[in-house]
Amino acid sequence: MKGEHPIRMLCELLKVSPSGYYRWLQQRPSPRQREDVAIAAKVAAAHRASRGTYGAPRILVDLQESGTRTSKRRCARLMREQGLQGRKKHRRRPRTTDSRHAQPVAANVIAMRPAPTGPNQCWLTDIMPGPGLCRVAVLDQSEEAVVDAA
Would 63 disulfide with which of 68, 69, 107, 150, CB 3.0-4.6 Å? Predict the structure, then answer.
């Protein structure tokens, strides 16, 4: 663009002084920018060393262990500028039941038995998942009462 139009006219349109434009053209990177370049190289190296799995929090720990002082926000910004991302952990899905098979379903043995006539003849169990815990109950079929729960 500056080859097509005179610099003075472009500076007038952008409302900047020509001397300010020439000063900006010759300026060197600031100490912060030079430091960013050095830290960005370390961030990229740590990301490669983790095979692309580490995000900003874990890379920050690596940098701090190697003696580089920086913040998580700066580390995240430098990663974003380089297009680096950590991999998310996959949620673990319970694999307790595989219903996609050609085998026959097991017979209900309890339904085939005669009804219990007294206590301690037939116990049933149930597992109930909850937030952060798992509850287990043991039932006595004849009394229809909970024998034990954990």
Answer: 68
Number of domains, the chain: 2
Domain containing residue 11: 7-82
Q: Does residue 29 belong to any structural domain of this protein?
A: yes
Judge whether 124 and 134 are in contact, CB under 8 Å: no
pLDDT in tens, 1-43: 667 888 899 999 989 999 998 998 888 889 999 999 999 999 9
Burial class (CB in 10 A: 0-12, 13-18, 19+), 60: buried
Distance CA 132, CA 65 (A): 33
Crossing angle between the packed helical segments 72-82 and 56-65, to the nearest 10 degrees: 110
Does residue 144 come out as left (phi exceeding 0), alpha (psi in the -120 to 50 range) or beta?
left
- Burial, 141: exposed, middle or buried (Cβ in 10 Å; 0-12, 13-18, 19+)? middle
